[in-house]
Amino acid sequence: MITGASAGIGAEIARTFAEAGHPLLLLARRREKLLDLGLPDAVCCEADVRDRDRIAAAIAEGEARFGPVDLLVNNAGVSRLARLDDQDPAEWRDLIDINVIGVLNCMHAVLPAMKARRHGTIVNVSSIAGRKVYPFHDVYGGTKHFVHAVSEGVRGASAEHDVRVMTISPGITKSEIDKTITDPAAFAVWSADRDRMEGGIDAEHVARTILFAYKLPQSVNLQEMTITATAQRY
Question: Is the distance from CB of 124 to CB of 111 less than 8 angstroms?
């Protein structure tokens, strides 16, 4: 189960797992983009991670075809970069509802069954901004720090049930995340760093890192992963 699978890192995760032979439950707000991926053994569902009912319906559809969700990749997110005092408070709501509540909604939807089966993996896609503080990342960075904190809390609580919770924190990555940066000053700072690194890492490397971690034995949990371009200094 991959959220935000219609583009960028999410789409690359979907392609990588399809190539490895895994059936897929793909969620995004743009179902046509999911269908455009043309992946085999994929259930494509229009679903907003803020909507618990749609998430439940998508899971029911995917499980009816492929069986229980064994891996959740919580990838859906937005990057509204700005200084807190300059930012439209409506953007705070987008950041919190998608990057925080969306992550919680999806974990809540799959965890009970994973614990009951004593098998399952959750990978939460955070950001290097969840570990470091950057200019114009005031609220966005806060949401990603939350992802780290909640992931560690749920990991500890799930360990006795043999359920793995992992966090991956990419640095600047070639994806569509730049299209969600609406503040000109924030975009100027962010894009200058991106251009210096020739766009950052390919989304494929993030996807292959997640596949590697998932393929480890269930008794081995790669709890936290940070992946950046070698040229990324901060």
Answer: no
Burial class (CB in 10 A: 0-12, 13-18, 19+), 198: exposed
Active-site pick, 134, 140, 214, 234: 140
CA 187 to chain centre: 21
Helices (H), the chain: 8-19, 31-36, 52-66, 89-96, 102-117, 138-158, 184-196, 203-215
Q: Quick check: 33 and 6 in contact, CB under 8 A?
A: yes
* Nearby residues of 50 by Cβ (< 8 Å), 6 or more positions away: 97, 98, 101, 102, 105
The total number of residues written for the chain in this structure: 234
pLDDT per residue rounded down to tens, the chain (234 residues): 999 999 999 999 999 999 999 999 999 999 999 999 999 999 999 999 999 999 999 999 999 999 999 999 999 999 999 999 999 999 999 999 999 999 999 999 999 999 999 999 999 999 999 999 999 999 999 999 999 999 999 999 999 999 999 999 999 998 777 777 888 888 898 888 888 888 889 999 999 999 999 999 999 999 999 999 999 988
Q: In the annotation, is 140 catalytic?
A: yes
